[in-house]
């Protein structure tokens, strides 16, 4: 395993503005340093199921393609 590759996918509310460094600074104050996301991706919408839940597997595949990451086995 080659270190932490956490990614945060965010959808901002209408009228809100932020950037990746602001999100990282907030995370550094709230969570352990090794959990701070390396990649911050702002999205307009998330892939969802018919009931409105986020399809995490589709989101993970999108991020792997976008960030050119290799898949790591999950538990």
Provide the CATH top-level class: Alpha Beta
State the major sheet. 2 strands, parallel
User: What fraction, in percent, of the residue positions are helical?
Assistant: 25-40%
Number of strands: 2
Distance between the termini: 14 Å
How large, in whole angstroms, is the Cα Rg? Answer: 14 Å
What would CATH call the architecture?
Answer: 2-Layer Sandwich
Q: What's the number of domains?
A: 1
For the biggest β-sheet, the strand order reads 1-2
Percentage of residues in DSSP E strands: 5-15%
The CATH homologous superfamily name equals ANL, C-terminal domain
Helical stretch tally: 2
Assign the CATH topology.
GMP Synthetase, Chain A, domain 3
Listing every helix as H and every strand as E from the N terminus to the C terminus, the arrangement reads EHEH
Class from secondary-structure proportions: alpha+beta
What general form does the structure show?
Answer: globular
What's the rounded overall pLDDT mean?
88
Catalogue the unreliable spans: none
What does this protein look like?
The chain has 75 residues and is an alpha+beta fold. It is 31% helix and 11% strand. The chain contains two helices and two strands. The chain has helices spanning 20-30, 56-67; strands at 7-10, 39-42. It has a two-stranded parallel sheet with strand order 1-2. α1 (20-30) links the parallel β1 (7-10) and β2 (39-42). The longest helix has 12 residues, at 56-67. The model has no long low-confidence stretch (mean pLDDT 88).
């Amino acid at each position: 395993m080659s270190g932490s590759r956490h990614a945060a996918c965010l959808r901002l509310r209408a009228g809100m503005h932020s950037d990746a460094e602001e999100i990282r600074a907030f995370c550094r104050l709230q969570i352990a340093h090794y959990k701070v996301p390396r990649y911050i991706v702002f999205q307009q919408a998330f892939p969802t199921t018919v009931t409105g839940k986020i399809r995490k597997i589709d989101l993970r595949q999108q991020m792997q393609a976008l960030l050119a990451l290799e898949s790591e086995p999950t538990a």
